[in-house]
Amino acid sequence: MIDAFRLGKLDLDCRRIALTQNKEGGERYEGKGYIGQDADGVVVYKLYVTDHQIV
C-alpha cells in the first residue's frame, strides 16, 4: 500500500469509513467508500453515507 501511494496509485475500497467532527455536538457520518489518488497524486475519498448522527 505504501508503494502504491508513493507511485500515485493508491486505491482502497473500504467497508466502513467514519468521519467525526471533533467538537461537542459534532456530526458523524459513516458508510462504505473508497480512498484513492487523482492524476496529480492528491489523496481523495468518497463516502456513501448510510448512517448520520449528531453526537
What would you say about this model in short?
The chain is mostly beta strands. The protein contains 1 helix and 3 strands.
Would you write up a description of this structure?
This protein is mostly beta strands and 55 residues long. It has one domain (2-54). 9% of the residues lie in helices and 60% in strands. It has one helix spanning 2-6; strands at residues 11-20, 27-37, 43-54. The protein has a three-stranded antiparallel sheet with strand order 1-2-3, with no helix packed on it. Strand 1 and strand 2 (27-37) form a beta hairpin. The longest helix has 5 residues, at 2-6. The protein is elongated, with a radius of gyration of 14 Å. It starts with a helix and ends with a strand. The mean pLDDT is 92.
Rg of Cα set: 14 Å
Strand order of the largest sheet: 1-2-3
Number of strands: 3
Oligomer designation: single chain
**Tally of discrete structural domains:** 1
Sketch the topology as an H/E string, one letter per element: HEEE
How confident is the prediction overall: mean pLDDT?
92
Number of helices: 1
Tell me the helix content.
under 10%
Low-confidence stretches: none
Distance between the termini: 33 Å
Q: Based on CA inertia axes, which overall geometry fits?
A: elongated
Report on the biggest sheet: 3 strands, antiparallel
Query: Structural class of the secondary elements?
Result: mainly beta
- Residues in β-strands, percent: over 45%
